Fold this sequence. Notes:
The protein is α/β, with parallel strands linked by helices. The protein contains 7 helices and 12 strands. The chain has one domain (about 5-255): Purple Acid Phosphatase, chain A, domain 2 (4-Layer Sandwich). The longest helix has 23 residues, at about 140-165.
Amino acid sequence: xxxxxxxxxxxxxxxxxxxxxxxxxxxxxxxxxxxxxxxxxxxxxxxxxxxxxxxxxxxxxxxxxxxxxxxxxxxxxxxxxxxxxxxxxxxxxxxxxxxxxxxxxxxxxxxxxxxxxxxxxxxxxxxxxxxxxxxxxxxxxxxxxxxxxxxxxxxxxxxxxxxxxxxxxxxxxxxxxxxxxxxxxxxxxxxxxxxxxxxxxxxxxxxxxxxxxxxxxxxxxxxxxxxxxxxxxxxxxxxxxxxxxxxxxxxxxxxxx
Length: 257
């Protein structure tokens, strides 16, 4: 099934779900209120909101409190799904952060599956390792092997989640990029730390409708897998650069039965 990107308000249809997405909002202790206008707008424009990680800047519990306070307008009105990002792991409080988000009503994805308004969702944080024939391979020191294993484990979790979803429209949330096309614009030296082609393989095998990620703050907002599946980089920095007249989120319309 295909999905169309839209830019603003439009007529609602029971056969189309409007899915909004953003990422890398990097809430800090002193940023209270900064995100509330965007979330209030999303609550009016969309049927579902996707968050692709880095909700906090330093991975602190206080920061997730700021995020949740700003997100009240959207959480009260539409379903919200999320994965964590690398910044959310920074202070080693990721389990506490995940628990607080879940208790607030956000549907957290980490290899599990959710069906919302006729769309199947799964997601993982992902990991680095590089892309294509330049991907890091598990050879040499144990540290290198462990690095690669982390990427493989994340891809396997994604595969597990996709296997559990029923046929129909399916959307994947990631933090790390599954393709190199959406990280173009970043220094080439850091591509291996922005994502991994191992995350692309499950997307292609299961012919997902679309995938969303963040993390690459200077990348491109749209790319495609080798099987022509759209991949959206919804980092707020990227969306601000590409769409300066709009708040930093996108909406796609997904046909459902």
